[in-house]
């Protein structure tokens, strides 16, 4: 393989016109330049210079090799710059896992700012529930995850992962605008035992949260409709087919439905999670960007707040 240093020296010799001038330009001795050119001739098996007593003259082969060397050296410089960007976290690939409600509210803010600051940093997004995201993180298939945990549904993270609190998402009750419950400022869970509920699937954390909350108040919620799509749940609520427990990030006021806080608030907490042995240099800057976007979101959406500290 041809030595890139020797190729750079060849280009410099042809540019400056002599070994001596090339030596001065590169801060080498003329003898070192001569040795490098001799080594390049051996490696390439080409005669690059016609040597006379007091001068050297480049051959046509040297001219051709130097032309290709300039392109190769330019590519190598680009590669070195790209590697430096990857080491600094401004280029490469960042693999992120998240869930729908944060994807629709927080990620557009963060991704827009990230694209302007780091246009060379590609992002791969996987959407799923916390169990899936935590598994992919632990297996090294994701660099960063956004996951939630309800106060009433504890979640333990694997020891190989570390979590950074991002947002606190108040859980509220959605009711139809025409429902008498909409006239109340706050709702006491104990008074909702006879209501019909619209809920997520049985295995979802939202369902477990509703069941735990109802159990605290001595009843089992009656559920006729289930969907893991909050837009569907809001639509069912808007025509007064039931009421629903919903995180504030999923709330969309209007279109026939309104939200009311619980008298005794409960929360869903959202964390940034990554592996303790962080190998992607883009992760720290991504965390900083997400924290900034979260601060903006907390100012704009009722029921969303930042964790203390």
TrEMBL record:
Gene3D superfamilies for the chain: Periplasmic binding protein-like II, Winged helix-like DNA-binding domain superfamily/Winged helix DNA-binding domain
What InterPro entries does the record tag this protein with? LysR_HTH_N, LysR_subst-bd, WH-like_DNA-bd_sf, WH_DNA-bd_sf
Q: Which residues form a coiled coil?
A: none
HTH lysR-type domain ranges (all copies): 2-59
- Annotated protein name in UniProt: DNA-binding transcriptional LysR family regulator
Q: Which PROSITE patterns match?
A: HTH_LYSR
Query: Record's GO cellular component, any one?
Result: protein-DNA complex
Lineage: superkingdom: Bacteria
| Pfam families registered for this protein in UniProt | HTH_1 (PF00126), LysR_substrate (PF03466)
Q: Which GO terms describe its molecular function?
A: DNA binding; DNA-binding transcription factor activity
User: From what organism does this protein derive?
Assistant: Propioniferax innocua
According to its UniProt record, which protein family does this protein belong to?
Answer: Belongs to the LysR transcriptional regulatory family.
Keyword Repeat (UniProt): no
Keyword annotations for this protein, in alphabetical order, are: DNA-binding, Transcription, Transcription regulation
């Amino acid at each position: 393989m041809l030595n890139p240093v020797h190729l750079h020296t060849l280009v410099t010799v042809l540019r400056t016109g002599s070994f001596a001038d090339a030596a001065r330009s590169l801060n080498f001795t003329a003898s070192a330049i001569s040795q490098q050119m001799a080594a390049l001739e051996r490696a390439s098996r080409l005669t690059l210079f016609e040597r006379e007593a007091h001068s050297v003259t480049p051959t046509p082969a040297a001219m051709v090799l130097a032309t290709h060397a300039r392109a190769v050296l330019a590519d190598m410089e680009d590669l070195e710059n790209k590697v430096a960007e990857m080491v600094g976290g401004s280029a490469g690939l960042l693999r992120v896992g998240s869930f729908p409600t944060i994807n629709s509210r927080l990620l557009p803010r963060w991704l827009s700012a990230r694209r302007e600051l780091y246009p060379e940093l590609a992002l791969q997004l996987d959407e799923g529930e916390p169990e899936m995201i935590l598994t992919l993180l632990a297996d090294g298939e994701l660099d960063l995850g956004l996951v939630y945990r309800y106060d009433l549904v504890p979640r333990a993270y694997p020891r190989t992962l570390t979590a950074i609190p991002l947002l606190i998402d108040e859980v509220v009750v959605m009711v139809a605008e025409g429902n008498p419950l909409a006239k109340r400022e706050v709702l006491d869970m104990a008074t909702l035992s006879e209501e019909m509920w619209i809920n997520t699937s049985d295995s979802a954390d939202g369902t477990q949260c509703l069941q735990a909350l109802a159990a605290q108040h001595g009843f089992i919620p009656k559920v006729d409709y289930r969907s893991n799509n909050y837009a569907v749940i809001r639509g069912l609520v808007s025509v007064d087919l039931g009421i629903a427990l919903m995180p504030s990030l999923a709330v969309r006021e209007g279109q026939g439905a309104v939200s009311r806080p619980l008298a005794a608030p409960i929360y869903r907490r959202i964390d940034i999670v990554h592996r303790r042995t962080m190998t992607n240099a883009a992760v720290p800057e991504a965390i900083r960007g997400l924290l900034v976007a979260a601060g903006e979101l907390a100012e704009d959406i009722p029921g969303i707040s930042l964790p203390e500290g």
